[in-house]
Amino acid sequence: MTLEEIETFVRIATGAGFTQTARQLARSQPAISRRIRQLEQSLDVPLFERVGRGVRLSNAGRAFLPHAEVALAALRDGERAVRELSEKAAGPLSLRLAVVGTLADSHIVDVLRGLQSRFEGASVELRTANSREVSDLVRRGEADLGLRYFPDPDPKLESIPLGSERLSVVVPAGHRVRARRVRDMRPFDGDPWLGFPPDRRHPEASLERLLLAAGVSNPRITPVDSLTAQKRLVEAGLGIALLPRSSFREELRLGSLRTIDVASLNAEQPVVVVRRRSGHHGPIAEAFLELLERSSPELLSGHRVGPRAAKRRKRIRAARRTNS
Predict the structure, then answer these.
(1) Which of 145, 187, 291, 311 is deepest in the core (most CB within 10 A)?
(2) pTM of the full predicted structure?
(3) For residue 183, how far is the Cα from the chain centroid?
(4) d(CA 86, CA 88)
(5) For residue 324, what pLDDT is reported?
(6) What's the confidence (pLDDT) of residue 249?
């Protein structure tokens, strides 16, 4: 089997499909199909099953995928390690960063400016995605670091805490509650809520659990898997939401949304950097992480660094000094 065959398999298996994979790799669809056939011949098993006009992973394909991702990421790490050695004399370094869209704001830009002042001419490839996709990009070696909400439970990934972002009640501009601050959640009795579908990996983050803990009995929740859609529906008066402040700053500025502070509400979501435990951590990635950790209490406004996160951060820095 070849690197090209493994990369093609991983792209198709993780959702790109044959047509999109052909576009991404600048190859014809017959060439992509030929790579998969050759890989299946090497393994002597079918990796995909036909379902209507599409395909899905076979049992063998599901078993092979995590190993293919590890192999592909390791080869990319090796390629980058060699390139970084040669680039010390040949040119600037580069960083591939995956970030949840709501965290890719002006504060992260400030960190990137600091990075580029330290590494003259350094280039940064920035991709935005949701938290699950951020981890997928890091796991496959397509990103050096990922910035997301909540630690990833995958043991192959290291989740480094930065802090916790508080969640706020967000209502349309014309909502009946006009106060900027209320004592508890009772003023929102009867309001429908909009929230992300529950994530079995992070049950503590479910909107229902947060609302019940805040004293809302039998909350009516409509699952909406898009942050932008949630904001548009709130603007239209079709519900209210519990969102991180970084996600609706523009709407606050325009006046289409309002936030109401609830004294009894204690809802937040942790922000972490994820990276592969066994991956290559080059100098520019280490420098970005150092700048981000040092700056996060000030730069990630609305985030709070708890005592456990602070202690872990100290341990990480001590370990780096020991290993350097």
Answers:
(1) 145
(2) 0.69
(3) 33
(4) 5
(5) 45
(6) 85
Strand-strand pairing, 157-172 and 268-276: antiparallel
**Which residues share a beta bridge with 129?**
100
Amino acid, single-letter form, for residue 244: P
Q: Where are the alpha helices (DSSP H) in 143-265?
A: 207-213, 227-235, 249-254
CA-based end-to-end distance of the chain: 37
Domains and CATH numbers, the chain: 3-67 (1.10.10.10), 90-162+270-323 (3.40.190.10), 165-268 (3.40.190.290)
Contact 64, 47 (CB under 8 A): yes
**Do residues 216 and 227 make contact, with C-beta atoms less than 8 angstroms apart?**
no
Quote the tokens at residue 217.
Answer: 């009995």
How far is CA 73 from each of CA 16, 60, 205, 240, rounded to the nearest angstrom? 18, 20, 30, 41
Q: What are phi and psi of 214, to 5 degrees?
A: -85, 0
pLDDT tens, position by position, 178-188: 999 999 999 99
Flag whether pLDDT at 156 surpasses 90. Answer: no
pLDDT digits over 30-45, tens only? 998 999 999 999 999 9
The tokens of 274 are what?
């994820």
Where would I find the beta strands (DSSP E) of 173-267?
Answer: 181-182, 193-195, 221-223, 240-244, 257-262
